[in-house]
Design goal:
CATH superfamily: paralog of FGE (formylglycine-generating enzyme)
Number of helices: 6
Bound molecules: calcium ion
Largest sheet: 4 strands, mixed
Number of strands: 12
Oligomer: single chain
Structural class: alpha+beta
CATH topology: paralog of FGE (formylglycine-generating enzyme)
Helix content: 10-25%
CATH architecture: Alpha-Beta Complex
Strand content: 15-25%
Radius of gyration: 19 Å
Shape: globular
Distance between the termini: 39 Å
Number of domains: 1
CATH class: Alpha Beta
């Protein structure tokens, strides 16, 4: 998926670097604090129409055919995991992310200062620069910081980093089917989590690219890079920024084809080389990467990291308490 993100991190060679000095060991209670800051929405599941037959996506992405899928109840986070939450995880565990191990990650060139030292670009996507020391703590490399962006989605995290966070938090990644069901927010066959129009009434509903990609970002939605994880109105299920802002890792291996069965809580192929990512990012534009639609999909190597990829957590349902009302039932 070179057009929508870097795809070559496996060429990088790991070398150890020291943990950053702005992140001392966390205080007691960091785990509880982080988890209380990560509310999950209980969703009822059931039958939903997954994918799309519209001729809007990249032919190799496998958005179609549209198909009925059935899900058991599950829970999913309102937002992508934020820098503050990831910091609590790192403080509690000392986790060193893959981008820190290899000492570099991919940053969109338009977010680097004009006087930034020369960096290696991807051959077929030269706007991606491999920036030394770029990682979740330093999203644009030396001189940048996650500080001031505590409530933005964490980025520069690999699929394995996402899994490590989930394991620590007692959560997991959503399956691709769960992600799409949740992102649709109860709507059927719509293009976006809120409907078919990108800017209904002229109002921006997500953080994508306005202008000519990659040279001119007019930022009419107010954000050149990441936006806070809860920016923009939530969808019908209460999820923020399912589309736009940052790609989100899913649990599944990627395949462009979909078996006829099982369509009850599908978990994707048993093997693969790339993991599914969903939702698109602040770099998406209809003219270049129309993958911020709710049916759109892409994939990346599980060790890939970049400044536009994060993740959202999910979990199995809690035992239902008497009187529990699911969000979709409140509005039906
Ligand atoms: Ca934007």
């Amino acid at each position: 998926m070179a057009r929508s993100g870097p795809d070559e991190p496996s060429q990088r060679q790991p070398h150890p670097i020291a943990l950053p000095d702005d992140l001392p060991p966390g205080p007691p209670g960091a785990v509880a604090t982080a988890l209380s800051d990560l509310p999950l929405i209980a969703l009822p599941g059931g039958e939903f129409l997954m994918g799309s037959d519209a001729d809007e996506g990249e032919p190799g992405d496998g958005e179609g055919p549209a198909r009925q899928v059935r899900l058991e109840p599950f829970r999913i986070a309102r937002t992508a995991v934020t820098n503050r939450q990831f910091a609590a995880f790192v403080q509690a565990t000392g986790h060193v992310s893959y981008a820190e191990e290899v000492g570099a990650s991919f940053v969109f060139a338009g977010l680097l200062p004009d006087d930034f030292p020369p960096t290696r670009g991807l051959v077929d996507a030269p706007w991606w620069r491999e920036v030394p020391q770029a990682c979740w703590l330093r999203p644009e490399g030396p001189g940048s910081s996650w500080r001031g962006r505590e409530d933005h989605p964490v980025v520069h995290v690999s699929w394995h980093d996402a899994l490590a966070f989930c394991n620590w938090a007692g959560l997991r990644l959503p399956t691709e089917a769960q992600w799409e069901y949740a992102a649709r927010g109860g709507l059927v066959g719509r293009r976006y989590p809120w409907g078919d129009e990108l800017t209904p009434g002229g109002e921006h509903r997500c953080n994508v690219w306005q202008g000519r990609f990659p040279s001119r970002n007019e930022c009419h939605d107010g954000h050149a890079g990441t936006a806070p994880a809860d920016a923009f109105p939530a969808n019908g299920f209460g999820l923020h920024n399912a589309c736009g802002n940052t790609w989100e890792w899913c649990a599944d291996w990627f395949s462009a084809t979909h078996p006829a069965a099982p369509r009850h809580d599908p978990v994707g192929p048993a093997h693969g080389t790339r993991r599914v990512i969903r939702g698109g990012s602040y770099l998406c534009h209809e003219s270049y990467c129309f993958r911020f639609r709710v049916a759109a999909r892409s994939a990346n190597l599980p060790e890939a990291t970049a400044g536009h990829m994060g993740f959202r957590c999910a979990a199995d349902p809690l035992p239902a308490a008497p009187g529990t009302v699911f969000p979709s039932e409140e509005h039906s």
